[in-house]
Amino acid sequence: MAMLEIKDLAVSFDDFKILWDISLSVEEGQIVAVVGSNGAGKSTLLNTISGLIPPSSGSVAFLGKRIDALSPADIVRMKLSQVPEGGHLFPEMKIKENLELGAYTCRSKRERKEALEMVYNIFPILKARERKLAGTLSGGERQMLAIGRSLMATPALLLLDEPSLGLAPKMVLHLFEIVKRINKEGITILLVEQNVRRALAQADKGYVLETGRIVMAGEGKKLLESEQVKKAYLGM
After folding, report:
1. Which domain holds residue 52?
2. Which residues contact 22 (CB under 8 A, 6 or more apart)?
3. CATH number, domain at 5?
4. 19 in a structural domain
5. 126 inside domain
6. 10-residue block means of pLDDT along the chain (236 residues)?
7. pLDDT of residue 236
8. Is 59 part of a structural domain of the chain?
9. What is the domain count for the chain?
């Protein structure tokens, strides 16, 4: 049984269809990438999985249970957490306060403490600056904080929406190393990215989304070798 199973998912806004018959799966322990150009429907897909957008049809199942009719809060309690595009931090709050907001599903002080220790172990710079305002961080540091906040919910599955967007090339490399490390901590990852080369190189499995439809699927590195992917996304 897949950890996440999406079948024939469609999403519409008013009479405008955004996603068409999306089917994909994520196995426990994998990094799965959904790649495509801006406007392909990638963020809509993640927001639908997270319960922020209701599907028009189809189903979303997590750990064997349908979640497409659940609230976002209930989905987070099931250990599925999303890092939204742009992070959506609280810049006038301290770094530690931003992190603590992600731990509202933790049932005890011990759980919150252990979650915070895990985040600080992955992002030591956040520990060093925990008393500073989030608004003082650089773009890469803000993305670290956004990821750390989602990790405070101790997810089994982490959804990452365009984590490398707007970052300098050196920080992009560092970010993908962080994604790999989080996965090694036992957290399954569904990654949405415009950086097709980096995402597919790291993914166990990849899906190519174009104008709301999945047009290709397969092992990440094999998709990178596809002439269609090379021509459409890699400029080759």
Report:
1. 1-79+194-236
2. 6, 8, 9, 10, 45, 58, 209, 212, 213, 214
3. 3.40.50.300
4. yes
5. no
6. 94 89 96 90 94 95 95 93 86 93 77 89 92 90 93 95 87 92 95 90 94 92 87 67
7. 47
8. yes
9. 1
